[in-house]
Design goal:
By secondary structure, the chain is α/β, with parallel strands linked by helices. It has a single domain, classed as Spore Coat Polysaccharide Biosynthesis Protein SpsA, Chain A (Alpha-Beta Complex), CATH 3.90.550. Strands 3-2-1-4-7-6-9-8 form an eight-stranded mixed sheet, with helices on both faces. β8 and β9 form a beta hairpin. The protein is globular. The N terminus and C terminus are likely disordered.
């Protein structure tokens, strides 16, 4: 009898050891390789490791334009071992993606892309933003989609950790930093891309300042202007020299070339044909300044513009859809990331 018990214990030990050995070889496989339906997951399940790449849609739009699709797809390809989370206000309380919306269904089919409703009343709980959110009159805020997005990204990264990206950012190589801000120019930070570990004090302080100095009539007051003034409270910023990033306590302040090699004043260059295209060797991602694009310039197949070639390289499935749409044979083959 004793020998049988010992044998069973040995079998159990070997079985457990085998599982842990496999997980040690592929630490992310425990999450990504289990055949759990995405519809059964909630944000906390997916974001628990603090490694998510987060996108937000704060309008009710449920049909993302090609640039948004490219942003999400490029991140999914660039970070195959990290969850890519797209929060959409228009989903309401529904976690089931409507199959009648091909773009969303195709994004959800990517193995590391997850779509969730953006529920601000829940998100802002246990943060300094909740009292402000409950009192603000959104109908009087002409820039509410942008203001609410500024608030959401702070709360989201503070609560869960990870990287936030605007939906007009194309990822071209992995970002090697955990706690970082992106300089738009010398001594001025953007908030279009930022990354922090969970519960960083800097983000909490930003949320406090967001409420205390709230002024929705000043463009960017709750966005890049807030981030910049809070960073300047921590450190004395200087002009960048060569390609050297700056350090402010535990925050990396990354050179403008990392994300903004083409400044907002020259945003149209993304939609022009270049004699010799830049290699962007010093960049991690490219911000295409969609807010500046009031002329509604689009990526046109066969145009050979810089934007078209970026789509071809970094979001080929989205580009393939553009080609099929131009040919009148629309399909959305986004079910692979390789």
């Amino acid at each position: 009898m004793l020998k049988e018990i010992q044998m069973y214990l040995c079998i159990i030990f070997l079985f457990a050891f085998g599982i842990f050995y496999e997980l040690s070889l592929e630490p992310d496989c425990f999450f990504f390789c289990k055949p759990i339906s995405k519809q059964l997951l909630i944000p906390k399940d997916v974001m628990s490791q603090g490694r998510s790449i987060i996108f937000l849609e704060t309008t009710d739009r449920l049909i993302p334009p090609p640039l948004v699709l490219c942003s999400v797809e490029s991140a999914a390809r660039m970070y195959p071992d990290r969850p890519i989370i797209f929060f959409l206000k228009g989903l309401g309380n529904n976690t089931m993606v409507d199959s009648r919306i091909p773009a969303l269904s195709s994004l959800s089919a990517l193995k590391n892309v997850f779509l969730f409703p953006l529920q601000m009343d829940i998100l802002f709980q246990d943060t300094p933003l909740l009292p402000w959110y409950l009192q603000v009159n959104t109908t009087e805020e002409k820039d509410w989609p942008y203001i609410s997005s500024d608030a959401c990204r702070l709360a989201m990264i503070w609560k869960y950790g990870g990287i936030y990206m605007d939906t007009d950012v194309i990822s071209i190589r992995p970002i090697p930093e955990a706690n970082f801000l992106a300089a738009q120019s010398s001594q001025f930070s953007s908030n279009g891309i930022l990354g922090f570990q969970q519960h960083q004090q800097f983000l909490w302080d930003c949320m406090v300042d967001f409420v205390q100095n709230y002024n929705g009539s000043i463009w960017g007051n709750q966005g890049p202007l807030l981030i910049t003034r809070m960073l300047k409270k921590l450190c004395k910023l200087s002009d960048f020299e060569n390609m050297v990033d700056q350090r402010c306590h535990n925050i990396s302040f990354l050179h403008p070339q990392r994300f903004y090699p083409i400044s907002y004043q020259k945003w149209e260059k993304y939609y022009e044909v270049w004699d010799s295209e830049p290699d962007f060797n010093n960049s991690y991602a490219l911000h295409l300044w969609n807010f500046m694009n009031q002329k509604k310039k689009n990526v046109t197949t066969g145009s050979n513009t810089l934007a078209e070639n970026l789509f071809k390289t970094y979001c080929p499935a989205t580009y393939s859809t553009l080609v099929q749409t131009a040919q009148g044979s629309y399909q959305m083959p986004l079910n692979k990331t390789s």
